[in-house]
Structures are given as C-alpha cells and as structure tokens.
Amino acid sequence: MINSLLIANRGEIACRIIRTAREMGIRTVAVYSDADAMALHVREADEAVHIGPSPARESYLVGEKIIAAAKATGAEAIHPGYGFLSENAEFAQAVADAGLVWVGPKPSSITAMGLKDAAKKLMAAAGVPVTPGYMGENQDAAFLAEQAAEIGYPVLIKAVAGGGGKGMRKVDDAADFADMLASCQREAAASFGNDHVLIEKYILTPRHIEVQVFGDTHGNVVHLFERDCSLQRRHQKVIEEAPAPGMDEATRADLCAAAVRAAKAVDYVGAGTIEFIADASEGLRADRIWFMEMNTRLQVEHPVTEEITGVDLVEWQLRVASGEPIPLRQEELAINGWAMEARLYAEDPAKGFLPSIGTLELFQLPEHMGRVDTGVYEGAEVSPFYDPMIAKVIAWGEDREEARELLSEMLEESAIWPVKTNSAFLINALDHPDFVAGTVDTGLIGRDGDAMTEEPVPTAQALTNAAMAMVPRSLQSGFRLNAPDVRSAPFLLDGKRVEVELHGPGADEPAPAMLVAESGSVWQLTPWRAEGSAGGAASDGAILSPMPGKVIAVDVAAGDKVTKGQKLLTLEAMKMEHSLTAPFDGVVAELNATAGAQVQVEALLVKIEKEEA
Question: What's the CATH number for 122-130+207-336?
Fold first, then answer.
C-alpha cells in the first residue's frame, strides 16, 4: 500500500482525497500557489509545498514543479484529482518515469481517449454504439459541409480535442455551416492547439447519461451503474443524480455492459467515466443511446455514485494504484436508494453568472443534513484565479423525491455572505416541473433559465424580523397602549433603499447592520442614512469592473461612437470571459483599460457620454 501521497490539485477535490488518505493511514502532501497559501487543503494536509504564483499556468499546470515537490517530500505517489493535469498523458508518463506511482489510468489509455474522433473509431470497433456522424481526417470546409448535409440538420460541430463546452457549435441550417465551422475551429485552436473537428447528428431531446467504470492491473473491469447529468448550463453540469430517472433494468444492463467493453478496449486501470448521449424523445431506450466520450479521471460528480453504492472511489483508486485488485466483484455491487449533487458556485446568476469573489465572512452549510464536499471555510478568500465552485452539496434518499426534497432543503439552509452564490438558482432548478418529473434534457436551462435566475428577494416578514432586531427601543415612536404599533421605516438592503414594516418595540441595543438569511440567500440590512444611498451605476455612463480580473480585449478607443449594447471590452476571471457593453448610445469619453492589464473590482474602465442633440 502507498504510504505517502502528493495531491496535484486544490480546492474541494484535494480535501476530498486527503480525507480518504487520512482514514487509510496515508501521509498527504499538498501543493499550493500564492493565492492558496491559506487554503483548506493546505491546512488539512500533513505537509504543503509552495509551487508558484497564483495563475494556474505558473503553478498547478507546471508538472516539473509538482514532481519536484513529490521527490522533495518523499511522496511515493501523485493523485491528480480532476482538471489541471489529470488527463495529461505526458504528465502521467513523467510521473512514472520519475519512479513515482501515478494514481490514474495508463498514459496510453489517456491518449487513446483524448481525441474524440479517434476514441469514437476505437469504440465502434469494440462494439460500443456511437453517435451518427463524420470523424475522419478530411477537414476541408466544403467536404465537411457535404458531410453535414448527408447526416442531416441540425448537426453539432465539435473540436476533437475539446472539453468543457469549448469548440462546440450547433448548426440548424446549411446556410450557417461555414461561419459556425470557422468560429469553432478558431476557438478550438486557441483553447486546445488543435483546430480539427468532427460532426455529429444533433439530438433534439438529449439526455446526458454516464457510467462509472473501474479497472485494475489484474484484468478486472466493473461498472458502478449510471449517473444522469442532463441538467446543464452551456454544456456545464449543474445538478447530477444517480441512478438515472426512467432507466429500466434491461436498458441499464445494455448501457453498463457497453461501458465495460469501452474500458476494456483501452486496457483501463482506475476510475473512469464513459459518457453517453441519449435521444429521450421516446424515453430511455438502448438503441437510442450512443457513446460520446470518456473521462479518464475521477469526476466532479463521483459522490452520487458513492452514495448509492457505499463505495469510496478514492480508496479504490489508491488500492488499485498500489497493485491490489478491485475490492468488489460486479455481482457484489448494487444500487441502494437515490442521490443528488448540486454544484455550489461563487457567482451571481442574476448578473449573467458573473463570478463573485472576496472573503467568506459567513459560510454555513448544513453538513448535519447530508454530505458537503468543500475546499473553503468561513473567513477564507474566494480568488479570481480558479474555477468558482466552492462546494458540492449531496443528498441521499430512499427514492428520488426524498433525495430531491432533502437537497433543496440543504440549499435553503445554506448561508453565505458577502460572496454571491447560485444557491437560489439551484433551488429553482430543483423545483422546476420537468426536474420534479425526471424528464430533464440538456436544453432545459436554455429554455427556462430566465425564471430560474431571477434575483431573489427576502420576504417582508424576514425584513421585519431583521429590522426589529436592529431598531433600539429609544427610537420607537407612535406607541399607544392598546393600539397597534405598526409603521414603515427606510432601510438599505444591500445598498438599495427599501421600506420595512415595523411592529412593536425593537431591540434594547441598536445594531449597525443585520444579515437577513432566507431560502439559501443572504442580504445585509442597514439603517437608512441620507448619505448612505449608493450610486455609480452604468446608467450614468461609468462602466466599472464587476470583479477583479484581466482585460483580454478592448474593442473601442477614446472618442469612438458606440451604440447601446455594443461590446466595449472583455474581462477574464475564474476561467470565464465576461463582456462589458455600452448602456446607451454615446461617445467613449474616457478609456482606462488596456489588453493584458489586471483590474480591481469597481475600477472605472470606460466612461460613455451621451451626444448632445
């Protein structure tokens, strides 16, 4: 058994791996960047090594630094977690060449499944059903257009080296194909250094079903059943569950058997996921489910599989990497109950899911009600350098409805401030009629997302309760014996004036501010002061940075005429791009942004002035 382990990752997955390693008596080593010096995974590991500046490309993505840290601390093995270098075959090989144990699949397996077109050919040869489409070498635009016409519109153009929704375009009509192809190729080249694409039939009622597989060095491969990850926003998973709703035993058997064939075809070792796309227009049927891709690593959503099988997948990874066989045979694995996971992000859905950063002055999640995997703590900083996911909230129930209700209740009991989160959005998604019915497809949020992303507001009763805990008795007025003492008073709710109804006497000691927590959201209520009203909105033409970040493109120059909605510049933060646009027609009177510059929150970037008539 491995005695010491370096985790080449950060955040909640690093903490997750440390937890299991500690239970197994394995010494752990964390690595960290400047931004993560006080991170939870650094605190929880037995030892920690600084590996560079905050940007991931200068720290977590530098394989040489990670291997050097492992050698310097005497670690025997490296666990990559997910993301970063977890599916990098060259890094996996470098770890092995350094005489260290790689807790993951063979480099050859990563390579075989790394390119979507080659993987699909391999899967077809192994008898795994693949989506109808073209995945050949000919990348001539006219030829690809012919292939698209033959497949039949709508089609999906996908970068062969893509992932995370990048390098992917849906095309509904032949007239749009050339432009969409060029756009997809540009994005693929910029993101992955490879502009080759494949073309697939676009499934009109798609569901994303994936199967957890596990292999060892003794030739054994098992599956741990399926997960449904159909609730997605822009190809990013939002809520996952296991098992998949509407999956009958015959379809499950066929699907899982295909996943095992896929894993055996690449001599797979360790934890992996075979992802399938299902045409759910007539329910889940084995003849309408096709291979999409394989993730050669542990998945973000692995906890739902653990919850329904009772298996610790990280423990299995460490045992298999140590040369042991898979702990259980296929016939010893069974589904018990239902599990759901929600990804809690530091972002503001009401503002286009802009990342929200800062100090977590309040961070309370109901761990007593279910499972919470997190990499932060109250008082920690949410930085702009990494993925904005701050926790995974996982609920288990005897059946799907029990799991859904518990997950919703857990999110409602969460309280995080002043960093904004997507908690209210997740609650709305869980309550959507299609989700309740188990008939979700991947387009649900695209169709109905506006209703899910409405900015939450506290109830009048919640405001009254908070205000009465703030207002001193000495300021009570209008009270008469045997008469109702009800009046309205002004307050600031997150900087905006609101009228709050007061009842009876208030607090003995005044409070300068009070947090109002309700249904997974938190607001700050403060007494109204004339000088306390907030300004500086875009309505006055001042375009402020909504977050710290890097300016990656400036589309205007001082003196330019602009129209309402025109893109002015693009910011990058937390691996996401955000466009800032003109609030009205006018002229660029002031420009304080240059491409490549780092900017702080609320920095004045552009000033737009209306032209005089």
Answer: 3.30.470.20
